[in-house]
Structure formats: C-alpha cells, structure tokens
Amino acid sequence: xxxxxxxxxxxxxxxxxxxxxxxxxxxxxxxxxxxxxxxxxxxxxxxxxxxxxxxxxxxxxxxxxxxxxxxxxxxxxxxxxxxxxxxxxxxxxxxxxxxxxxxxxxxxxxxxxxxxxxxxxxxxxxxxxxxxxx
Length: 134
Hints:
- This protein is mainly alpha-helical.
- It has a single domain (about 5-130), classed as Nucleotidyltransferases  domain 2 (Four Helix Bundle (Hemerythrin (Met), subunit A)), CATH 1.20.120.
- It is built from 6 helices and no strands.
- The protein has helices at about 5-25, 30-50, 60-65, 75-85, 100-105, 105-130.
- The chain is elongated, with a radius of gyration of 15 Å.
- It starts with a helix and ends in a 5-residue tail after the last helix.
- The model has no long low-confidence stretch (mean pLDDT about 95).
C-alpha cells in the first residue's frame, strides 16, 4: 500500500480552511467540527509517515500514540481533548439535552478551537518536515 501521509496533511489543511470559512460565515457548529477533523487528520498524517497503523477519530488518543515516538507538548494534548468534544455534538441534535447544534456553539468557542487546530496542524507539519524514513 502506498504511503499517503501527504494526502492526509493536505486534507487536514483543507479542513482547517473550511473551519475558518465557516467561522467567518457564522456556522460555528461546523467550524468546531472541522477543527476536530483537521487536528485528527494532521496527527494521522504523522503517524502514517512513521509507518504506524492508526484508527479512530480521537485526536487526543492519536497524540498519545505519537507521544510514544516523539515529544508532544502537553498544551497540544489538552487542546486535542477539547477538540474531540466537538466530534459528535456539533452534528447531532440528540447529542445535546436540548436545542440544535447550530444554536449551541458560539463565535468565541469556534475561534478558540480554530486556534487549537492550527497549533496541532503546525506542530504536525514541523514533525513531518523533520522526519526521515528509517
């Protein structure tokens, strides 16, 4: 199977651009979801480049795997925990006690999550740029 980490990183960058676009247009729920997707895919890009098999949408768990092979700042692991909370409730009304997701996410929250996803993406890009296959 071909190594596809560049494709995963490209999609991570696109997801972050999508999040920023939705933030500008007031679709805060989708902005938050796209930030989670961006961070998840960026970390997967690094893990795939390392030749590791990974599965699942939990960025915090993926960073934990990465931390077994490369130093990961605690601030990014904490950011991933918050981003992961946007995976389901941003999309499904029955994931929240009441109200639709589009009414439950705020501009401030979306901006914060964009910042977190950007930090994780930049970290992963820097790891990839320094990676040399063994």
